[in-house]
Amino acid sequence: MRSYSAAGRIAFVVTLIVVLVLALLPVPRLEEFGIDVGFHYDKLNHASAFAVLTFLGSLGWPGRKARLIVFLALVGAAIEILQGTTLIERDLDVFDWVADCVGMAFGLAAAICVNWILRRGD
């Protein structure tokens, strides 16, 4: 199980960096670099990103799920606040943060299922 934790931690950190870059680059910069990642429905982008982050973080730190959820909720809120600044020139939308939280619930449920399956195999 320890190898799953290490792989989950590495994948979580890499994914977090990618999510932060995609969330905090101004849209013209994303277009300039030819980056068009995600779904056309923005809330689905938020939910899926935070589902993946929660899933990977739960595998990386299986005993710290509550801390992970608090951390990711704060990251989601910080992203929204920063997107509302003139520096980033994107929209602050509280419903994006709600979508982040919904994604976290799905990611946590998926991680719990995977952990249960892995334990049954031991």
TL;DR of this structure?
By secondary structure, this protein is an all-alpha fold. The protein is 78% helix and 0% strand.
* Rg calc: 15 Å
Unreliable residue runs: none
Question: How confident is the prediction overall: mean pLDDT?
Answer: 88
Q: Write down the secondary-structure element order.
A: HHHHH
Question: Helix proportion of residues, in percent?
Answer: over 70%
Please tell me what the overall shape is. elongated
Tally of helical segments: 5
Give the number of domains: 1
How is the biggest beta sheet arranged? none
Classification by helices and strands: mainly alpha
How many β-strands, per DSSP? Answer: 0
Organism: Mesorhizobium qingshengii
Transmembrane segments: 7-24, 44-61, 68-88, 94-118
Keywords: Membrane, Transmembrane, Transmembrane helix
Protein name: VanZ like family protein
